[in-house]
Amino acid sequence: MKEAGQMQNLESARAGRSVSTQTDSMTGQIPRLSKVNLFTLLSLWMELFPAVEAQRQKSQVKKTGLVVVKNMKIIDLHCSSEDLHAGKIALIKHGSRLKNCDLYFSRKPCSACLKMIVNAGVNRISYWPADPEISLLSEASSSEDAKLDAKAVERLKSNSRAHVCVLLQPLVCYMMQFVEETSYKCDFIQKIAKTFPDANTDFYSKCRQERVKEYEMLFLISNEELHKQILMTIGLENLCENPYFSNLRQNMKDLILLLATVASSVPNFEHYGFYCGSTEQINEIHNQCLPQEIARHCMVQARLLAYRTEDHKIGVGAVIWAERKSQNCDGTGMMYFIGCGYNAFPVGSEYADFPNMDDKQKDREIRKFRYIVHAEQNALTFRCQEIKPEEKSMIFVTKCPCDECVPLIKGAGIKQIYTGDIDVGKKKADISYMRFGELEGISKFTWQLNPSGSCVLEQNEPESKENGVVRPIPLNEELHQNKKLCLGNH
């Protein structure tokens, strides 16, 4: 068996070459998230998909997120349900179509999942190197079963054609600083800051600190010796030696910090959320609106995608989901993934082939707008499923769709748009956002204070807990005082 540390470095190098950019190079521009790290972060985030209903999660079995990738394109997002592990859900939904796919798990899958997905002919299985799906941190009575399962997984791994490995890449220089700055300046945080200029300016920092603590508890093992024991049990004993071990832990911590930072940019703050703008439409559309926690979760997916942008000024991400008429086997309830994208130059092109300027004073011929493929356009182009007119479909976009994209979204049959609205009705150089406000026939949910003014707890209202009791947050509670941060369940 190859030394684990060498394997990890080799895989990182290979992955860096194969997935560096949608085009070939972006040297000298803004820092950019690698595809390997993007897939890893999305798998962790899918583990946190809000439970549609109370799930009795077995203490020994950890909920797991999964990203299915083919030809370096995301073709599905899954998370465990009460009855099925994420790997089993992928097998049910895709079957032999998993052949030659890469699977990114938020935890090392159990032997029952691994034997089936290996049998389906997957190309590579990557996993987060902490506590596996069958937890090794559970009670003593079940720890022996967990160790036996880990041994079975190792035997399956060593005898399979699929490459089972750890893929984590160090963040590029200034990536974390860039994510922090852009998260604080994004539409969702700035809308709150503009609406309540006298609000406590630390609300974003507090939210971020809380999420960092929460995610570290979920995805990291604080005790280094215990982490080494788990790595040895799951077949990564050679990663326990330095510098591999210290590098591994640092990479894991960096990714958790990045995830918490991006997640905090769409906060569960007071009565802010995604609502329709017209009070006359509120009662009519309310039943069609997603629960706020799910809407926020999907928007964070789009925010993560935005860090793959090739636009040096602004990153935009888009993700399309749809809702079946009845519950499916996935932990996402009735929702299923359609496609995703980010703004970039056309596939296969060299980055330097196109202008990257947007200065209004410059000659229009050397501006970028006519060459950049928008996030919504990429999501529609690379969708893995068709949009069915009889089902509710929704697109989550980190910025208001422009005049170029609005007709495409409507023409594709998408029923709902979730976005920010800071640019609505504006023209910026060659980009116009006039059509979104005039768009009819599609429900538009923009980030804003709940316009209904209702204090009644509804399906899509934030909740707070006192002494274990869930209660609604009155709309006017501390509304014009320092804002109180209300963190939702993930």
TrEMBL record:
<dbReference type="Pfam" id="PF00383">
    <property type="entry name" value="dCMP_cyt_deam_1"/>
</dbReference>
<feature type="region of interest" description="Disordered">
    <location>
        <begin position="1"/>
        <end position="26"/>
    </location>
</feature>
<keyword id="KW-0862">Zinc</keyword>
<feature type="compositionally biased region" description="Polar residues">
    <location>
        <begin position="1"/>
        <end position="11"/>
    </location>
</feature>
<dbReference type="InterPro" id="IPR035105">
    <property type="entry name" value="Deoxycytidylate_deaminase_dom"/>
</dbReference>
<dbReference type="InterPro" id="IPR015517">
    <property type="entry name" value="dCMP_deaminase-rel"/>
</dbReference>
<comment type="similarity">
    <text>Belongs to the cytidine and deoxycytidylate deaminase family.</text>
</comment>
<dbReference type="GO" id="GO:0005737">
    <property type="term" value="C:cytoplasm"/>
</dbReference>
<dbReference type="GO" id="GO:0008270">
    <property type="term" value="F:zinc ion binding"/>
</dbReference>
<dbReference type="InterPro" id="IPR016192">
    <property type="entry name" value="APOBEC/CMP_deaminase_Zn-bd"/>
</dbReference>
<keyword id="KW-0378">Hydrolase</keyword>
<comment type="function">
    <text>Catalyzes the deamination of cytidine and deoxycytidine into uridine and deoxyuridine, respectively. May play an important role in testicular development and spermatogenesis.</text>
</comment>
<keyword id="KW-0479">Metal-binding</keyword>
<protein>
    <recommendedName>
        <fullName>Cytidine and dCMP deaminase domain-containing protein 1</fullName>
        <ecNumber>3.5.4.5</ecNumber>
    </recommendedName>
</protein>
<dbReference type="GO" id="GO:0004126">
    <property type="term" value="F:cytidine deaminase activity"/>
</dbReference>
<feature type="domain" description="CMP/dCMP-type deaminase">
    <location>
        <begin position="44"/>
        <end position="144"/>
    </location>
</feature>
<dbReference type="InterPro" id="IPR002125">
    <property type="entry name" value="CMP_dCMP_dom"/>
</dbReference>
<feature type="domain" description="CMP/dCMP-type deaminase">
    <location>
        <begin position="293"/>
        <end position="457"/>
    </location>
</feature>
<dbReference type="GO" id="GO:0004132">
    <property type="term" value="F:dCMP deaminase activity"/>
</dbReference>
<keyword id="KW-0677">Repeat</keyword>
<dbReference type="InterPro" id="IPR016193">
    <property type="entry name" value="Cytidine_deaminase-like"/>
</dbReference>
